[in-house]
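S.,

Sequence below, as promised.
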Amino acid sequence: MQYENIFSEGKIGDLTLKNRIVMPPMGTNLAGVEGEVTDHLIAYYEERAKGGTGLIIVEFTCIDSEYGKGFVRQLRLDDDRFIPGIFRLANAVHKYGTKIFVQIHHAGRQSNSSLIHGKQIVAPSSVPCAAVGEEPRELTTAEVKELVHKFVQSAVRCKRAGMDGVEVHGAHGYLVNQFLSPEANLRTDEYGGCFENRMRFLEEIIVGIKEECGEDFPVTVRLNVDDFTEGGIDLELGKAISTYLENLGVDGLHISCGTYDSMEKVIESPLYEQGWRVYLAEAIKKEVSIPVMTVGSIREPQFVETILAEGKADFVAIGRGLIADPDWVNKTIEEREGEIRKCINCLHCIHSVSANLHIRCTINARAGRELEFKELHPLTSNENRHVVIVGGGPGGMEAARILTLKGYNVTLFEKENKLGGQLHLVTDPVYRKKMTWHIDYLSHEMKRLNVDVRLNTEAAVEDIIAFNPYAVLLATGGRPRLPQVAGIDLDRVYTYEDIKLRELVFSNNKITVVGSGMTCHGTARRLAEAGNDVTYVEIPTKASKRIGADTRLRLLGKLQQANVNIVTEHKLEKILLNSVIVEDLASGIQSELESEYVIVAMGVEAYNPLENLLKGCMENVFVLGDAAGYGSLGDATREGFEKAYVFESIVTNCREKKVLQTV
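The prediction came back faster than expected:
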């Protein structure tokens, strides 16, 4: 077997897992309004169990809804009425030989008053979390003891519901982490002060669970071994906590890092390298003999195998990678790595749940919607239906993939010499590699499914009509959006496409880059690294809204390191022959920036030259993705998937509409 370490059995306590892949807990917003398990949530986890995952740790589950909520639709286990739903979830996962834990959780000072009906949030001490911005009330000693009881009783409910174990959430700045942290815990009673006192809260939880559930019921701890905050837990303290927990009888440690005040360490942006925090688990594994799990932007089977083979961890948690592809494990064991849809770290899943939507994925349109899109229904007709798709970007290829799986005969036209479309424009080195993963996946699917792909071919109307197609999907994408300012038509103005796709070269020139978003940042940095004097004028765009605040600051920092002059909070007013005029948004004061060339990177606008021409001579013409005015990878993927999935209905509705119009 190619990956013998991944697919060797592993043990956590007395529990045997069929392989070394763990799905870590990640909030989904798929719970019900009262925190109950729903059919959608069961379908979501069942899909990952069916895909071969060894252990699933269910998302953080509230043990005290009065003060401990961390999410609007957070699972709950603070009452017996939630046991039946957890029981159904356990049964659904167990069908596939997958084991399942629940992560039990209290948010502490990382809750907020809006989540707990306006009440003041609580914490070990009245020390606020800067990211939340609310001052917590210090828990009384009696309240602390009551919370220990609530953690224990939630674990008891898990066991009664047929769960295989529990994970205590002691990471990411939540309540247990707060008790462990010298920065957050300033108590003077038995739960604060010295190391042993700060450990007492977690110790009593662990001991209580073991007493109530038995020594054979596995208990793991999700543990921060570095908070990446001033005065918080660092790696040396993390080592001490780990050995203390081993001596208490904890069955495994799930090593993590970061709090809300260092959020990008918790949920990595595209700028982080694969497996960047494995070193933390490796350090802890040298200190303890119980199983250690590592986590953090781990995507590729060979990378996982190397971690295990080199003894850096006993189990590897793949989180967003299993959102993107629930079949990651099965595809790996069946040596179908080319078919793995690897997570690109775009953070769309995080942004979705943060906006109180259910979990979504940019590259997997089914994520969180498994009940909507169950199995593909192949064509029932014996007719060989031919569909022409124009455009080899992500939307066009996703539509081609689904239509082919349903039995359609697909021809895909792409005017360039390679597939991928706008994805090739992302130039930041770390992020570009991840985007290349997705291009490679879709391109591999075109070959695997024998899609008739015609590169270097710009589809003309007569070429399409010659196929006498059943339908045409136009995924012609977008073209650079240009600001409507004086001077935009000067010869010295170029777009990001000129730099990336046409490989226009500048050297030792004064250049102003206008726009925002990943592509814009990559363009500015690339030009600076080529020896140009670059000024970046940040103009908000749709693309920039998809970048988190922390990621934006990191990107700006990278530009500063490349000696780029950064101008924010301004708008572009005018382009002159040897300069640009910008205006301060607050004061209205204009200033002139010397510039030999101007590069515009302000996103895309729809490019759709064929729709009207084709609709004049044939039926069943549809537009998707950027060509329909959307403008993001997630939109393009969703459009391509959805239109292809319900293609027969779309065509039927289109015909019925035309009949009604005729009548």
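The two ends are 65 Å apart (CA to CA).

Coffee later?
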